[in-house]
Amino acid sequence: MSSICFLLLPPLVISQEVSDALFDYHSVRSEQSVTEGNSGKWEGESLSMEGRSRIQDMVNFGPQWSGGSHLLWDGDIGESMNTSFRISAAGKHRITMVLTKAPDYGIFNINFNGEPILKNIDLYSEKVELANLINLGEFNLAAGIQRLEFVLSGANVKAHPFRKTGYLMGVDYLVAKNLEPKKPIKEVRSSPPPINDSVSFEEVQPLLQKYCYECHGAGKKVKGKVNLKEMESRAKFSQQVEISRLGAEAVSFGEMPPKKSEQPSAEEKRKISDFLNRIVDEYARENTILEPVIMRRFNRYEYNNAVRDLLQLRGDIYPLPEKSIRGESHFNPASGVMPRSVRVSNRTLGKNQVRSE
Questions:
Q1: What is the pLDDT of residues 169-191, one digit of tens each?
Q2: H or E element, residue 23
Q3: Other CB atoms closer than 10 Å to residue 176's CB: what's the count?
Q4: Are 139 and 91 in contact (CB under 8 A)?
Q5: d(CA 145, CA 213)
Q6: Where are the domains of the chain?
Q7: Which is the most buried residue in 110, 118, 147, 324, by most CB within 10 A?
Q8: CATH code for residues 27-178
Q9: What gap in Å lies between CA 73 and CA 169, rounded to an integer?
Q10: Single pTM value for the model
């Protein structure tokens, strides 16, 4: 059947120029990753893109490209590739970068923040490979946007023109290392402030005698096996902290004294509960060792299991597998910088995505 169809179809002729335009792998745009600027490193594909800049997947050329892709640009001699990155802290920085070399790559002059710094960087090579690390120099930088310009000044005599007149360049990654000495972090250890006994035992004892001793000490029968009459000092309450805790709760919630008994005033209740609560607080400070609590979000599986257990569900709420872990994070709140672009997509569009900057 395929041979019959082949015979019926007229021959299709495509010129070389149209063929290059249709199947130009240099024009394929990959997905932009998120900057790693808070660590001092920017992937080329994370730098700002202007004009004919785009992302090219480099996995097919080998594993040596950081992040598996780079920033690709093409232009004619005299044109420039412009990009930028952001420095969060002012000070002295050393700027280094790694570029890509290939048979159709040109010779470039590099300007940094409007000043020429390097000339005649020849990116020609017989094969597609990484160039050696380039040291742009050390600069005193203000915090904020830093601009890089790569001016296409010419080409190696062995280089093959891209689309007859132009040449390419690629940026794998850039590092801006902060050379300012780090300020030592002073560890501050402070003991908890002493408890201020705003209500003393001498103030509380008459109130306990008036409202509590009848059931807990003065009567023939001691209720709850709690004899407050024997608690003759503040130290006695500290030694029996559980009684102090239960007493504070009973008075605070109005459970004691019983409703049929004479009731203390609001101020008297406050004094009794404040005295007992301070006894409990003091004991907790001196005898409890609290481990540091690490706060973090549940991952997908922990959240799935928690919801399933709490709601007593039989199945998983996430039937699909977890996303594969990537080398680049998406939005890192610790950087304090909002992402440069937001990408949204839906099932109808499939791989077609809309990017808003």
A1: 999 999 999 998 877 766 666 55
A2: none
A3: 21
A4: no
A5: 75
A6: 27-178, 201-287
A7: 110
A8: 2.60.120.260
A9: 5
A10: 0.48
